[in-house]
């Protein structure tokens, strides 16, 4: 990839100078004011900002930086460094920095062959972006119910497979991991691609392997909303060269990633129209640092959760979330299911009284796009124009395709999502704080439940 960048820079160097700076006259296009605008996001004091500005104004900035991936002027751009770090960290041959996790998912589905007339099996709990990216690729999402792990239930997948199915998209939900052995076994049996949505569980492992590297493609959200990331960013991991090339076509506007970016196709099917999901240099500058911290962050969360779980008693009225790999999940949330909504409300109230950050949705909760039955942009099948595609596309309907969505399609997901109790954990908890959280949970459950050593264990 480095040689590709050098060639591209030589080919277009003169043209890029015209837009990246002002030559020998005037001020750089990107200069002191732009740097200060970024510095302000750190919440520094006015005095500190004045000192930073004074330093910058003494420095010769030349034409200023070029804050896109290509033509950065660096030996290795920040995006290249981000992708290299991802390859080395995850142990994969190909990594693509993207503008968002949704962009990574869209590219992954197109690479996997999703298009008109096809279906993808998606979990009933995850986030809208997974199913939405299927629709963006002109495929049709088919929702599969979950099990007590809140991940896709592998025993329910086969019943949903049709001649139109091309992929399964397991989502590793909120720090946990799916049963990937079972998912990949079904996929292999039916010759289906596996697109892992690891957006919510970056750094998690299943039986020693990082999630996102087990399937054919793995998509991540490296963003401010996740445990890693500073703004809006994404990452796609791929092990197969042809899949990487197809995904890059989507991310790179149909072929700009190639050694000769404007050349004719090198083989049949190489080029097709794509989007532009490239990661920017500003985003990569933050996220390459964030990504290097992944293992340390995940290890701290794991240690905190395991410390708390080891101290919890078991109760007849409580079912803990099933952990498919207790030593591999990230573990930034503790989740369990009370026997009733009323019991859940009472437990949460008691936990909050004791300073524990806990929540439950209950029977009257509003919409949430983490649950399939509220993913309105998908389940209402409304199009941006009057043409109902992909759902009413002849390529789909002529193959027998027809889908309707509604609450009750995935009853386990409907029940568990509204009934679960969530306790938020902090990677920086000290041993004493872990002990205090565990004591508060035990005290709340003691007050409303029946302790029973034979009840469902927290770790199977």
Summed up:
The chain is of the alpha/beta class.
Q: Care to describe what's here?
A:
- It is a single chain.
- This protein is α/β, with parallel strands linked by helices and 460 residues long.
- It folds into three domains: 2-58, no CATH class; 78-293, Aspartate Aminotransferase, domain 2; 294-361 and 420-448, Aspartate Aminotransferase, domain 1 (Alpha-Beta Complex).
- It is 37% helix and 12% strand.
- It contains 15 helices and 13 strands.
- It has helices spanning 2-20, 32-40, 46-58, 78-90, 101-111, 128-136, 180-189, 241-251, 281-292, 294-309, 341-353, 376-379, 394-397, 411-419, 431-448; strands at residues 94-98, 119-123, 140-144, 165-168, 193-197, 205-206, 209-210, 217-221, 234-238, 318-320, 333-338, 358-360, 421-424.
- α5 (101-111) crosses α6 and α11 packs across α15 (431-448).
- The longest helix is centred in the N-terminal third of the chain and has 19 residues, at 2-20.
- The two termini are 45 Å apart.
Number of domains: 3
CATH homologous superfamily identity of the largest domain: Type I PLP-dependent aspartate aminotransferase-like (Major domain)
Strand order of the largest sheet: 1-9-8-5-4-2-3
Summarize the helix and strand pattern as letters: HHHHEHEHEEHEEEEEHHHEEHEHHHEH
> What about the largest sheet?
7 strands, mixed
Q: Could you say what the CATH architecture of the largest domain is?
A: 3-Layer(aba) Sandwich
The end-to-end distance, rounded to whole angstroms, is 45 Å
Q: How large, in whole angstroms, is the Cα Rg?
A: 24 Å
Would you give the CATH topology of the largest domain? Aspartate Aminotransferase, domain 2
- CATH hierarchy class name of the largest domain: Alpha Beta
Structural class by helix and strand composition: alpha/beta
Give helix % range.
25-40%
Shape: globular
- What percentage of amino acids are in beta strands? 5-15%
Q: Regions with pLDDT < 50 over 5+ consecutive residues?
A: 1-15
Average predicted confidence as pLDDT: 93
Tally of helical segments: 15
What's the total count of β strands?
13
């Amino acid at each position: 990839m480095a040689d590709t960048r050098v060639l591209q820079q030589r080919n277009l160097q003169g043209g890029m100078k015209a837009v990246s700076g002002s030559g020998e006259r005037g001020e750089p296009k990107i200069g002191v004011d732009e740097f200060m605008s970024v510095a302000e996001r750190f919440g520094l004091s006015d005095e500190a900002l004045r000192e930073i500005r004074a330093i910058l104004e003494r420095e010769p900035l030349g034409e200023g930086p070029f804050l896109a991936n290509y033509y950065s002027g660096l030996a290795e751009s920040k995006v290249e460094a981000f992708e290299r770090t991802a390859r080395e960290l995850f142990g994969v041959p190909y990594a693509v920095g993207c503008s968002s996790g949704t962009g990574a998912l869209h590219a992954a589905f197109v690479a996997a062959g999703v298009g008109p007339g096809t279906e993808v099996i998606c979990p009933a709990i995850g986030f809208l972006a997974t199913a939405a990216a299927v629709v963006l690729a002109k495929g049709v999402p088919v929702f599969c119910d979950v099990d007590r792990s809140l991940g896709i239930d592998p025993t329910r997948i086969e019943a949903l497979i049709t001649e139109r199915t091309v992929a399964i998209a397991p989502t590793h939900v909120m720090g946990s991991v799916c049963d990937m052995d079972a998912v990949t076994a079904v996929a292999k049996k039916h010759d289906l691609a596996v697109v892992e949505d690891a957006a919510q569980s970056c750094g998690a492992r299943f039986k020693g392997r990082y999630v996102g590297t087990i399937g054919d493609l793995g998509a991540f959200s490296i963003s401010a909303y996740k445990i890693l990331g500073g703004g809006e960013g994404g990452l796609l991991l791929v092990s197969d060269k042809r899949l990487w090339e197809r995904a890059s076509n989507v991310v790179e506007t149909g072929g700009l990633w190639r050694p000769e970016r404007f050349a004719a196709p090198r083989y049949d099917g190489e080029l097709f129209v794509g989007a532009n999901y490239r990661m920017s240099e500003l985003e990569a500058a933050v996220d390459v640092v964030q990504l290097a911290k992944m293992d340390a962050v995940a290890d701290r969360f794991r240690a905190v959760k395991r410390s708390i779980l080891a101290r919890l008693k078991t109760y007849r009225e409580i079912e803990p979330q099933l952990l498919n790999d207790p030593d591999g999940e990230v573990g930034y949330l503790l989740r369990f299911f009370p026997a009733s909504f009323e019991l859940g409300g009472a437990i949460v109230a008691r936990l909050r009284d004791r300073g524990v950050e806990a929540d439950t949705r209950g029977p009257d909760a509003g919409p949430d796009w983490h649950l399939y039955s509220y993913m309105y942009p998908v389940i209402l099948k409304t199009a941006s124009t009057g043409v109902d595609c992909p759902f009413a596309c002849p390529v789909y309907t002529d193959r027998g395709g027809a889908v309707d969505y509604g609450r009750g399609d995935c009853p386990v997901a409907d029940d568990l999502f509204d009934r679960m109790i969530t306790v938020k954990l902090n990677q920086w908890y000290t041993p004493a704080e872990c002990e205090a959280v565990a004591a508060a949970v035990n005290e709340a459950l003691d007050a409303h439940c029946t302790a029973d050593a034979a009840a469902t264990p927290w770790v199977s």
